[in-house]
Structures are given as structure tokens and as C-alpha cells.
Design brief:
Blueprint lengths: L15 E6 L2 E4 L5 H20 L18 H25 L2 H6 L1 H18 L1 H4 L23 H10 L25 H14 L6 H14 L1 H4 L25 H9 L10 H4 L1 H13 L6 H5 L1
Antiparallel strand pairs: 1-2
Helix pairs in contact: 4-12, 6-12, 7-8, 7-10
Length: 298
């Protein structure tokens, strides 16, 4: 029944609240029954929830709830379960070779994830966050490998390092300083540099490149191959693919023949352990440039 003290809208016959704004009056329409039912149900649900679960703050804690549930207990249980599952996976990785790890879908996924994390902590300083490398630091995304790109080769390189004196099994190769040690004359070094540029399809003096071909065969082919294809077993880079560690300009090639630079990478087994090194190897191999055993066999 309308309140006699409040006006009634002449059009709808509904009592007005008395509120008016810019000539518009507010009607006192009741809320929809479905909305009120849902509203009261929410209130009842909230009341029951605060009784069953931790809800009301106290001085040093909160009400525990009739069910005795807590997010901390649930987290600790799941964390323990995950840790036990992780330990089982790590044990399996420790027992298997990199090839066996990569062949197992579950182990491969875990190894790549763990290897990526280890790479970001230990390797990005030299190889870059995207593993693209830089001057003097190899790009790990391409298919150009100094010591071979199979899983086993990558694993051995990471395990023992390169020219790492603290590890007697470290990979070691050393290119002679043809100019500094007066093995070749300056004009001979220039001729070889032009031939090397010609091997990779770069601009070079034809006459000098022809002369350099003979000098290359006598002094360089034993390691780099007759056509400059490289020799992973000796750590000799390929010279025919226009991928350069220290630069491919004529000046840079001459400088490397004159007095070569030799990069150093530590062996990581003492710092990370063999299991982490396996995971790193699987991750690096997964970046896209890793060689398969079939490709190497060819």
C-alpha cells in the first residue's frame, strides 16, 4: 500500500521516493523477486563459507574453519608431491645418456625446461639471452658447429669445456700463427685470405685467390678440409658457409691467419654436475641447429 505522505506517479500509479533530479522523479519500484532470492542465497552461502573455511581474522591468526582446511597445507602437500616426482625424473636423467633423454618425451620436456633455466643463469653472458652469440662467441641456433652438433658432441663440449686448463679432457685445438711465427710471408697470407673469401662466395681477387688455393692446400686443408668444409674432430671451423666467429672481412681473415684468436669455455661439470650438463645439452640441441646422428653419418 502506498504511503499517504509520499506522492504517487499519475502515469504508473507507483509511489515515488521523493527524489527528483532535473525534472526526473524516482519511482519506488520493488526489486525483482529472482534478484532478491539470489541476493539472500549469496548471504547464506557466505555465512556457511565463513564457518567451514578460514575466514575471520583474530589477533595472531584466523578462525580455522570447521573443515580444518588451509591453503598452506594444500600447497605443502602439492610441493612435496612435485618434489618427489622431480627427484624421480632427475634420477632417470642421471642414469641415461643425452640421446636416451631426448628420446623419452617426459624426460625431454623436463630436460629442456631445466636446461633453459641453467642456460639463463650460466651461459647468456657469452652466448646471449637468445643463444645467438656474438663476436668470438658461437651462435647456438644455427647448424654451424666447430666441435660437432650432435647431442653427444654438445654434451662433451659443455662437460669438459674448450681449452679449459683445469680439465685434462677439455677440447683443445690451436691454429698456428702463420704470420707472427713467420711460417708464411705477408703476401702469402693475403692470398690465402682471398681464397678463403672465395670459398664462401664472397668478393675476392681472382688472381690472388688462385694463388691462395695452392697455399691453402699446403697449409690449411689438413684441418679445414680441401674445400674448407671444416673438421669437427679437430675443432676446425668450416670456411665455406660465410658464418664467421671472428669476422669474415678480408682484414679479419688476414688477422686470424696472422695471429689467431683462440676462445675458451669452462667445463661445467664441476660447477653444475653431470645431470645439469645433460639437461643443458638437450636444451642447446633443441634450439634448432643441433645435428642428428643420421645427418652426421652422411
Amino acid at each position: 500500500m502506498a504511503d499517504k505522505d509520499k506522492p504517487v506517479d499519475e502515469v504508473t500509479g507507483v509511489e515515488m521516493t521523493g527524489h527528483e533530479w532535473d525534472g526526473i522523479t524516482e519511482l519506488n519500484n520493488p526489486l525483482p523477486r529472482w534478484w532478491l532470492t539470489l541476493f539472500y542465497a549469496c548471504i547464506a552461502f557466505a555465512a556457511v563459507y565463513t564457518l567451514l573455511y578460514p575466514a575471520w581474522p583474530l589477533v595472531n591468526s584466523a578462525t580455522a574453519g570447521l573443515l580444518g582446511w588451509s591453503s598452506r597445507t594444500t600447497y605443502e602437500g602439492r610441493a612435496t608431491e612435485a618434489e618427489m616426482r622431480k627427484e624421480g625424473i632427475l634420477e632417470r636423467i642421471a642414469e641415461r645418456s643425452p640421446e636416451e633423454i631426448a628420446a623419452d618425451p617426459e624426460l625431454r620436456i623436463h630436460a629442456i625446461a631445466a636446461g633453459r633455466a641453467a642456460f639463463k643463469v650460466n651461459c647468456v653472458q657469452c652466448h646471449g639471452s637468445g643463444a645467438a652469440g656474438g663476436g668470438g662467441y658461437p651462435n647456438l641456433n644455427d647448424d654451424d658447429w666447430i666441435w660437432g652438433g650432435s647431442l653427444d658432441a654438445i654434451y662433451t663440449t659443455i662437460l669438459h669445456g674448450i681449452r679449459y686448463g683445469a680439465d685434462e679432457d677439455s677440447r683443445i685445438s690451436e691454429m698456428p700463427a702463420f704470420g707472427r711465427d713467420e711460417i708464411l710471408a705477408r703476401d702469402e697470407i693475403v692470398a690465402i685470405a682471398h681464397h678463403v673469401r672465395a670459398l664462401s662466395g664472397q668478393e675476392a681477387d681472382a688472381a690472388l685467390a688462385t694463388r691462395g688455393e695452392t697455399l691453402f692446400a699446403d697449409n690449411c686443408a689438413a684441418c679445414h678440409g680441401e674445400t674448407g668444409g671444416g673438421g669437427p674432430e679437430l675443432g676446425a671451423p668450416a670456411l665455406d658457409d660465410a658464418i664467421w666467429l671472428y669476422g669474415g672481412s678480408l682484414q679479419a681473415i688476414r688477422a686470424q691467419i696472422q695471429a689467431p684468436q683462440h676462445g675458451v669455455m669452462p667445463g661445467w661439470v664441476d660447477r653444475l654436475g653431470e645431470t645439469s650438463v645433460k639437461q643443458l645439452a638437450v636444451y642447446v640441441h633443441s634450439l634448432g641447429g643441433g645435428e642428428t646422428e643420421t645427418a652426421e653419418a652422411r
